[in-house]
Amino acid sequence: MKPNPEQLDILKELINIGVGRAAGVLSEMVNSRISLQVPYIKVLSPSELKQEMEKLGNYRVSAVRLGFNGPFSGSAALVFPPDSASKLVSVLTNEESESLDLDSVRIGTLSEIGNIVINGVMGSISNVLKQCINYSLPNYFEDNIINFLMTPKPDPNAIILLARTRFIIEQLHIEGDIILIFEVGSLDALLSGVNPGSEETA
After folding, report:
1. Comparing C-alpha atoms, which of 26, 41, 200 is closest to residue 126?
2. What is the pLDDT of residue 200?
3. What does the pLDDT read at residue 96?
4. Residue ranges per structural domain of the chain
5. 124, 17 Cβ separation under 8 angstroms
6. Which CATH topology does 5-193 take?
7. Which terminal Cβ of the chain has fewer Cβ within 10 Å, N or C?
8. How far is CA 107 from CA 58, 141, 182, in A?
9. For residue 201, what pLDDT is reported?
């Protein structure tokens, strides 16, 4: 079951609502307005996702991934391009980005951001489905993007929702990208819950 255009629009709106809630939490943390916007989402196979990410270059990323299960299952990852990761950690910790190497402060900060954004999005979806979603503990990675996508090797038949998210920290004139990747084990259950007419996001 692949999403039709109306379902895709609803999924995009749900993700926008979720990242909007996350932006509110992050804004309080940095005492500066942060806006998160989702310009587009795509439904891809693992091989298509790999091709999509290769367009951006095989650079090193910081990423947070956690598994979920419930009415549908899979894993969600928040992927930070290198400049974006350094800027976000610098703002949240008041440390110079040059001093932020692969250390506990960086890992802890990015893991917390990942938790906030992913839980915001999944909470938005679970509210519409009116069912609980259970999460595993988040795992933090630093690797090049292709290695990250291919570890562990994804099911070639998996359906992946890719949401490109733009973040803007207005007062500090910082912009960057966050990439949300959802590997969904049972997309049918998700789509049946977001059929046009079933949306309750008001």
Report:
1. 200
2. 42
3. 64
4. 5-193
5. yes
6. Chemotaxis protein chec (3.40.1550)
7. C
8. 21, 9, 21
9. 41
Q: What's the chain's length in residues? A: 202
Q: What is the pTM of this model?
A: 0.81
How far is residue 149's CA from residue 128's CA, in Å, rounded to a whole number?
Answer: 29
Listed as ranges, residues in the chain with pLDDT below 50 are 197-202
Distance from C-alpha of 155 to C-alpha of 176, rounded to nearest angstrom: 30
Q: Are 184 and 159 in contact (CB under 8 A)?
A: yes
The two structure tokens encoding residue 85? 């990761």
pLDDT per position as a tens digit, 159-183: 888 888 888 877 766 676 777 888 8
φ, ψ of residue 159 in degrees (nearest 5): -105, 130
168 pairs with which residues across the strands? 35, 175
pLDDT digits (tens, 9 = 90+) for 105-132: 888 888 888 888 888 888 888 887 787 8
Q: Report the pLDDT value the prediction gives residue 134, as an integer from 0 to 100.
A: 87
Q: How far is CA 9 from the centre of its chain?
A: 17
CA 93/CA 107 separation, integer angstroms:
12
Picking from 139, 137, 148, 138, the residue whose alpha carbon sits closest to that of residue 179 is 148
DSSP-H helix ranges across the chain = 5-30, 46-54, 82-93, 104-129, 145-149, 187-193
